[in-house]
Write a structure and sequence with these properties.
Layout lengths: L8 H11 L4 E6 L5 E6 L8 H12 L7 E5 L5 H8 L3 E6 L2 H13 L4 E5 L10 H5 L4 E7 L15 H7 L7 H10 L4 E12 L7 H7 L3 E9 L5 E8 L7 E7 L2 H6 L8 E7 L16 E9 L10 H14 L6 E4 L3 E4 L8 E13 L2 E11 L11 H4 L8 H13 L14 H15 L2 E3 L2 E8 L5 E4 L5 E4 L5 E3 L7
Parallel strand pairs: 3-4, 3-6, 4-5, 6-7, 10-11
Antiparallel strand pairs: 1-2, 7-9, 8-9, 11-12, 12-16, 13-14, 14-15, 15-16, 17-18, 17-21, 18-19, 19-20
Helix pairs in contact: 2-3, 8-12, 10-12
Length: about 500
C-alpha cells in the first residue's frame, strides 16, 4: 500500500480543503458530434485531448450494438457515456469516489445505463478485479492510464485524488499490471480488444514490446503529440490468432515446407523440436541446434496481399525490440533481418536468429509462410550464439508465444473489430540498422567501403559511398560485413 508525504494526516486535511474548491463545467464533443456538459469537482479528471484520443479509437472499432466494455479510470464518465450511446453494455470504475459519483450522475443526466464501481487495478491488498470490474469478461477493456512518473521524495505532490488520475504511483507500473491481467485471462474475452492510452514519459515508446513479452499482440492505432514533446499512444492489444490451430511436431523436414504443403488457414503456426532440412536465404541450410526454436506461420493466403518486401526488415526489428531491454549493447540487427549476440563486450558477434519468407502460387494467389529460426540455449563450441548468452533467464521464457504475438501484430487481419495495421517505425528501424552496421562493420559494397544510413520503403539498404553518393542495395549478398566471423 502506498505511503509517503501524500498519504499522511496532514495530507488528508489538505485534501479536504481541495474538495471544497468550486466545481467546474466542461463541455466535450464526442466522435458522433454529440455535445456533453460535465459539472466536475476539483479532483475529477476532465475530458481532454487524451479523452478524445481514446473515444475516437473506440468508435472506429465498429463493434455492434450490444457489445460489452469496461472502462478503467472513468473520471468524468465521458468515454463510458459515449460507449453507452453506441448501444454497448458498459461497466466503468475509478478509485476516486468523486469520479464514480460524477459518472453515475452524468450517465443518468444523459439517459444512459452504466454500471459504475469504485476501485481499479493495484496491489493485491486493493482487491481482486471482480470487485471493480465485475465477474464477467468484456469485448473491450480500456484505460486512459496516468501519464506522469512518480515525483522525487522532496518534490511537490498533488493530492491523493488528483494523483490517482495523473501519476503512476505503482512500483510495478500500471501498464505492466494491466497487461499482465489481460494476459492471465482476466477481464477480456478470448477475442476481445484491450485499449490503453500510454504516455512517452512512461511506457509509451515500449508499450508494444511490453505487450509482446506477455504474449499479447499489439498495434499503435493513434498518436497525439503535444507542444512540450510528450506524446500519447493509443495501443490496441489482443490474444494473437485466437482460436487458430497451433501444430507441434517432434521432427519435420522444414516447418516452412509443412505449411506450404498444407491447406491450413491464415495464422496457423507450426513448431518443431528438430528440422532435418531447415533453410536460410539462398538455399543455405539452417543448423538445428539442441534447444533451438524452429517456427513458421501462414501469413498470407493471397486474399489480402498482407506480405510486402520490407516485412522481413520490420519483423526483424520487432524481434530485436523484444530482447533489446536485456542488454542493448550485446544484441544487434544485421540487415535485412538477422540478430547477432555477443557474450561480452569484448567477444565476437555470432548469429542467433534468422527470418525467411517463402511463397508458393496457389490458384489465383500466392501462399506465403514466415519461418523463424532462433537459438534459445547455447550449444558447446558452437559458431552461433543464443538468447541464453544475452540473459540466462531467457532460456526458460516462452519465446514462441512472444514471437507469436509479434507475428500477429504484423499480419493478423481484422474486419470487426476494425484494427488497422500500424505504420512502420521508420526512424527507429533506421537507427537499429545503422547501429548494427557499426557493430558488424565496416561495410563494403562491391569492394568499396560504404556507410549505412537506413532502409527505404521497400526494405532496401541505403548506403553512402566515399563520394557521398546514395546507393540502394537490394541483395544482402552484395554487402560484406567485415566484423562477422561466423554465421553470415
Amino acid at each position: 500500500m502506498k505511503t509517503g508525504p501524500n498519504f499522511t494526516a496532514e495530507a488528508a486535511k489538505a485534501e479536504i480543503g481541495r474538495l471544497q474548491r468550486a466545481s467546474k463545467k466542461v463541455v466535450w464533443t464526442s466522435p458522433t458530434q454529440q455535445s456533453f456538459e460535465f459539472d466536475l469537482p476539483a479532483t475529477v479528471y476532465p475530458p481532454r485531448r487524451d479523452t478524445s484520443l481514446l473515444a475516437n479509437s473506440l468508435h472506429r472499432l465498429g463493434l455492434p450494438h450490444g457489445s460489452s466494455c469496461l472502462e478503467i479510470g472513468c473520471g468524468s464518465g465521458a468515454v463510458a457515456i459515449h460507449a453507452a450511446t453506441l448501444g454497448w453494455r458498459v461497466v466503468a470504475c475509478d478509485i476516486n469516489p468523486f469520479a464514480v459519483a460524477c459518472t453515475r450522475h452524468h450517465a443518468s443526466l444523459y439517459g444512459q445505463s452504466i454500471t459504475v464501481m469504485e476501485g481499479g487495478p493495484g496491489p493485491v491488498s486493493d482487491g481482486t478485479s471482480s470487485q471493480w470490474g465485475g465477474d464477467q469478461h468484456y469485448d473491450v477493456v480500456m484505460w486512459n492510464l496516468p501519464y506522469l512518473p512518480q515525483p522525487s521524495q522532496d518534490a511537490d505532490v498533488l493530492g491523493p485524488m488528483e494523483e490517482s488520475a495523473l501519476i503512476d504511483t505503482d512500483d510495478t507500473g500500471l501498464f505492466h499490471r494491466y497487461v499482465r491481467r489481460i494476459s492471465n485471462g482476466q477481464l477480456l474475452k478470448e477475442k476481445g480488444i484491450a485499449l490503453a492510452v500510454v504516455s512517452s514519459l512512461l511506457d509509451g515508446s515500449n508499450a508494444c514490446s511490453i505487450a509482446w513479452r506477455y504474449g499479447l499482440a499489439a498495434r499503435v492505432l493513434a498518436t497525439e503529440t503535444f507542444e512540450d514533446g510528450e506524446s500519447l499512444d493509443l495501443v490496441a492489444m489482443w490474444r494473437p490468432y485466437a482460436g487458430v490451430q497451433c501444430i507441434h511436431e517432434s521432427v519435420v523436414e522444414s516447418t516452412n515446407t509443412t505449411l506450404l504443403d498444407s491447406d491450413f488457414p491464415l495464422g496457423v503456426r507450426c513448431t518443431a523440436d528438430k528440422q532435418l532440412d531447415g533453410r536460410g536465404r539462398r538455399g543455405r541450410s539452417w543448423e538445428s541446434l539442441e534447444g533451438s526454436i524452429a517456427a513458421s506461420w501462414i501469413v498470407d493466403d493471397g486474399t489480402h496481399a498482407l506480405h510486402k518486401p520490407a516485412d522481413q526488415v520490420h519483423l526483424g526489428f520487432n524481434i530485436l525490440q523484444l530482447f533489446q531491454h536485456h542488454d542493448s549493447q550485446r544484441i544487434c540487427m544485421k540487415w535485412p533481418n538477422d540478430l547477432y549476440i555477443r557474450s561480452s563486450s569484448s567477444s565476437s558477434w555470432k548469429k542467433c536468429a534468422g527470418i525467411l519468407f517463402e511463397g508458393r502460387t496457389r490458384g489465383k494467389g500466392q501462399r506465403t509462410v514466415l519461418g523463424i529460426g532462433l537459438n534459445k540455449r547455447q550449444a558447446p563450441n558452437s559458431n552461433f550464439s543464443s538468447l541464453e548468452q544475452l540473459n540466462p533467464e531467457l532460456a526458460t521464457e516462452n519465446i514462441v508465444a512472444q514471437i507469436h504475438a509479434i507475428v500477429a501484430s504484423k499480419f493478423e487481419f481484422f474486419q470487426q473489430p476494425l484494427i488497422p495495421f500500424s505504420s512502420p517505425q521508420y526512424g527507429a528501424v533506421d537507427s537499429a540498422i545503422v547501429s548494427g552496421s557499426k557493430h558488424l562493420g565496416p561495410l563494403f559494397y562491391r569492394g568499396n567501403k560504404v556507410e549505412a544510413t537506413g532502409v527505404d520503403k521497400d526494405g532496401s539498404l541505403i548506403v553512402l559511398d566515399a563520394m557521398g553518393a546514395s546507393i540502394h542495395v537490394d541483395e544482402p549478398e552484395d554487402i560484406e560485413w567485415s566484423n562477422i566471423q561466423f554465421g553470415v
